[in-house]
Design goal:
6 strands, 5 helices, single chain
Length: 171
């Protein structure tokens, strides 16, 4: 490849990278309008280390993530998450949440994706997920669940992706 073509590729790559970075800065910097009723709950979630974003394409839906900044989240902190209506995506990966904390999620009926991988969740908590009728994705990788937990998921008609690698679930 010639020097000229190499420089042209470098310039194109630099422009793309700059565009992505600029987009990320704008998403972070632009204020998100939070309804007054939810503002206290959002503040509590952020104080617990969570990130709250409007979910793209979801009218009034929220995306809540703890896996990057809120690894110290416990069952008590999960009560704030359960108080925020319209959560459509929730990522609790590698937090300190146990099966006891899942009781706070049972009212999140719009939830479509739930990441519980590498948490301390066991069979006892899965019963609280049985009413999540819009759940399409559930990741239980590396948790303490067994075959007993699967019985509670049978009624989730929209569930399409279930990850149970490195659990007590058998074939």
């Amino acid at each position: 490849i010639s020097q000229r073509k190499r420089m042209k590729l470098i310039r194109k790559s630099t422009v793309r990278i700059f565009g992505v970075l600029l987009g990320m800065v704008l998403v972070i910097a632009l204020p998100v309008v939070v309804p007054a009723a939810d503002s206290e709950v959002v503040a509590a979630i952020k104080k617990a280390g969570g990130l709250v974003f409007p979910a793209a394409g979801e009218d009034g839906g929220w995306k809540v993530e703890f896996h990057l900044t809120g690894k110290e989240l416990t069952d008590e902190g999960l009560a704030h998450v359960g108080a925020l209506e319209n959560i459509v995506r929730l990522n609790l990966r590698e937090t300190r949440v146990t099966h006891g904390g899942l009781v706070h999620l049972k009212g999140l009926t719009k939830l479509g994706r739930l990441h519980l991988e590498r948490t301390r969740v066991g069979d006892e908590g899965i019963v609280h997920l049985a009413g999540l009728v819009n759940l399409e994705y559930l990741n239980l990788y590396g948790t303490k669940i067994t075959d007993k937990a699967l019985a509670h998921l049978g009624g989730l008609k929209k569930l399409r992706q279930l990850y149970v690698w490195q659990t007590g679930v058998t074939d």
